[in-house]
């Protein structure tokens, strides 16, 4: 009789122990899951905050570019200084573009990010127009390389093609430095000024990605750095 009671107690103890293990595992799983969601939320907010900082800076730079455009019409414009500042500005927004791309790749593309990306595209478009004006006014020797790409949900084959384009253009920029104004702009964000420029140079969204060199040479397919290097 005592043995049966002991056996029942052992079974009850084992059952209680199994319940305790189950609840402990459940609570631990819920904690880990909740922690993962919280950390993911915090990380996403951090990345979005970084993007907002970059784009807030771009609004100031956009005003700067507009003022530069007015300065280029001055009769006493110092071309040497203007070209030097334009080159410095180009390098600055190129580095910011790489940073923005890095944060965007790590974040979920929301309507807010897409809208803010348009602001940065407008900045680079303003810079492109200014670079054209400065070349005409001061006979500058640098080359404008405008990279128009598919930003909103590109197909896998377009993504692969754009990865090749980006790698090659980055190599060109590293080799040529200030001799090249590398200006990446999304060509499918429905921005009127960009649409006008694309139509001016006979570029359609269906052709993206497209590389435009010195507003004269349109390239839709490249495989090697040499394909571009020989043109600049």
Tell me what the structure shows:
The chain is an alpha+beta fold and 232 residues long. It folds into two domains: 141 residues, no CATH class; 90 residues, Glutaredoxin (3-Layer(aba) Sandwich). Helix content is 69%, strand content 9%. The protein has six helices and four strands; from the N terminus they run αααβαβαββα. The chain has a four-stranded mixed beta sheet, with helices on both faces. Helix 4 links the parallel strand 1 and strand 2. Helix 1 packs antiparallel against helix 2, helix 1 runs parallel beside helix 3 and helix 2 runs antiparallel to helix 3. The longest helix has 70 residues. The chain starts with a helix and ends with a helix.
How is the topology of this model organized?
Blueprint: H1 2-71, H2 79-106, H3 111-138, E1 143-149, H4 156-176, E2 180-186, H5 192-200, E3 210-213, E4 217-219, H6 225-229
Parallel strand pairs: 1-2
Antiparallel strand pairs: 1-3, 3-4
Helix pairs in contact: 1-2, 1-3, 2-3
Task: Identify the notable features of this structure and list them briefly.
232 residues; alpha+beta; Glutaredoxin; 2 domains; four-stranded mixed β-sheet; 6 helices; 4 strands; 69% helix
């Amino acid at each position: 009789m005592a043995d049966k009671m002991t056996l029942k107690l052992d079974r009850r103890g084992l059952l209680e122990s199994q319940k305790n293990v189950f609840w402990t595992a459940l609570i631990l799983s819920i904690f880990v899951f909740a922690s993962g969601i919280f950390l993911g939320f915090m990380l996403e907010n951090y990345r979005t905050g970084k993007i907002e900082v970059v784009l807030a800076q771009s609004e100031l730079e956009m005003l700067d570019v507009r003022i530069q455009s007015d300065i280029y019409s001055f009769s006493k414009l110092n071309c040497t200084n203007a070209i030097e500042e334009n080159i410095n500005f180009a390098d600055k927004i190129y580095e910011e573009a790489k940073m923005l791309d890095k944060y965007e790749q790590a974040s979920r593309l929301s309507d807010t990010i897409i809208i803010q990306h348009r602001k940065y595209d407008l900045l680079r478009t303003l810079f492109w127009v200014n670079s054209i004006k400065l070349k005409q006014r001061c006979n500058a020797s640098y080359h404008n390389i405008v990279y128009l790409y598919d930003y909103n949900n590109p197909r896998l084959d377009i993504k692969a093609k754009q990865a090749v384009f980006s790698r090659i253009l980055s190599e060109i920029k590293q080799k040529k430095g200030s001799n090249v104004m590398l200006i990446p702009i999304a060509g499918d964000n429905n921005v009127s000024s960009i649409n006008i420029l694309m139509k001016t140079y006979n570029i359609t969204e269906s052709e993206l990605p497209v590389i435009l060199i010195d507003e004269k040479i349109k390239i839709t397919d490249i495989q090697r750095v040499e394909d571009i290097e020989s043109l600049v």
